[in-house]
């Protein structure tokens, strides 16, 4: 079939119009898809409070939130039926911290942290991949970034259990049996510390450390939103947590180190055990014979192996951050 020039021009124009229309439709679909993804995921990654995520406030409590005190001066923040939570998402640079006060004339030793965190949709199985743990000194009622006592980054929780649900999230109780952290006290005055957490979910989603208005324990909740502005204190909120802390009296100049250190058995046949309070750090242990020769015995996991030593009398020398102790040991 022969097509004249005018017909060819008309057909070409129609084809171009159709092509442009298809491109326009595809562009609109792409923009709508992007807008949907932003609304579905982008905003969910930036909310500060779990109550802002759009989930229904309908708490279901599986486990009593009152918590338990394990050590002599541990501290628990009160729950309130999963009232709310503050974002502490690691990939957003966010940190939430709460204060712990060591009483005057005491030293503290932080051993275990438990924290309730909203993570993942209800029944999804999404929980904590790891936690960054921080301990700061205090600066006028807020964490002191220039006085970082210690940090333990990438810590994998020792245990995680769902204790309830709210706002469409599971609430997980995270147990963090961290490396013990010394919290030195002061004579005659209390000493404040701040314990902070930044948590990463297994699906990298936004998550929230549970808080409530059920009762303020200390200075309140410190929040760093990751934007570079540092910590902001909300003195109306308290986190839901347990800080498992052992406390011991500060050893003064007049205190007898021998009364605080336990050495047993004596006489000994195979091993000598040495136990000290949490506020005493052993820096060196040596065992000498009666001629003053070092036997080479060392302290391993709180005990000294004497099984290869000859029977007789030895002198045990213990050096610590609170002084030196010398004691006679009998090997049978």
How does this model look, in words?
The chain is mainly beta. It contains two helices and 23 strands. It has three domains: 1-32; 50-249, no CATH class; 257-331, Immunoglobulin-like. The chain has helices at 5-42, 257-260, and strands at residues 60-61, 75-76, 84-87, 95-102, 106-121, 128-138, 143-155, 159-166, 169-176, 181-183, 191-201, 208-212, 221-224, 232-234, 238-239, 241-249, 262-264, 271-275, 282-289, 299-300, 303-305, 312-320, 323-331. The chain starts with a helix and ends with a strand. The model is unreliable at 27-44 (pLDDT under 50).
Topology (elements, then pairings):
Layout: H1 5-42, E1 60-61, E2 75-76, E3 84-87, E4 95-102, E5 106-121, E6 128-138, E7 143-155, E8 159-166, E9 169-176, E10 181-183, E11 191-201, E12 208-212, E13 221-224, E14 232-234, E15 238-239, E16 241-249, H2 257-260, E17 262-264, E18 271-275, E19 282-289, E20 299-300, E21 303-305, E22 312-320, E23 323-331
Antiparallel strand pairs: 1-8, 2-16, 3-12, 4-11, 4-13, 5-9, 5-10, 5-12, 5-16, 6-7, 6-11, 8-9, 12-15, 13-14, 17-18, 18-21, 19-22, 20-21, 22-23
């Amino acid at each position: 079939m022969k097509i004249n020039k005018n017909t060819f021009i008309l057909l070409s124009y129609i084809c171009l119009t159709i092509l442009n229309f298809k491109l326009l439709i595809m562009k609109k679909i792409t923009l709508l898809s992007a807008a949907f993804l932003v609304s579905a995921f982008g905003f969910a990654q930036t909310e500060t409070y779990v109550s802002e995520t759009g989930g229904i406030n309908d708490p279901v409590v599986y486990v009593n939130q009152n918590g338990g005190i394990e050590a002599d001066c541990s501290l628990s923040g009160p729950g309130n039926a999963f009232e709310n939570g503050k974002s502490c998402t690691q990939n957003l640079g966010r940190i939430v911290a709460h204060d712990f006060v060591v009483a005057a004339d005491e030293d503290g030793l932080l051993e275990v942290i438990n924290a309730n965190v909203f993570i993942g949709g209800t029944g999804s199985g999404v929980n904590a991949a790891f936690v960054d743990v921080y301990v700061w000194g205090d600066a006028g009622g807020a964490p002191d970034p220039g006085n970082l006592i210690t940090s333990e980054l990438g810590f994998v929780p020792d245990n995680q259990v769902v204790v309830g649900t709210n706002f469409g999230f599971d609430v997980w109780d995270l147990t963090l049996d961290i490396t013990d952290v010394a919290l030195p006290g002061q004579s005659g005055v209390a000493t404040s510390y701040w314990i902070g957490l930044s948590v990463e979910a297994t699906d990298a989603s936004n998550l929230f450390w549970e808080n409530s208005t059920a009762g303020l324990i200390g200075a309140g909740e410190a929040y760093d939103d990751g934007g570079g502005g540092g910590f902001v204190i909300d003195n109306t909120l308290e986190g839901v947590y347990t800080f498992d802390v052992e406390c011991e009296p500060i050893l003064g100049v007049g205190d007898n180190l021998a009364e605080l250190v336990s050495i047993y058995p004596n006489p000994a046949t195979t091993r000598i055990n040495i136990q000290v309070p949490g506020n005493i750090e052993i820096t060196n242990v040596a065992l000498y014979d009666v001629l003053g020769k070092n036997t080479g015995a060392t302290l391993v996991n709180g005990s000294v192996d004497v099984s290869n030593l000859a029977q007789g009398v030895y002198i045990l020398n213990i050096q610590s951050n609170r002084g030196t102790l010398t004691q006679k040991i009998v090997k049978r």
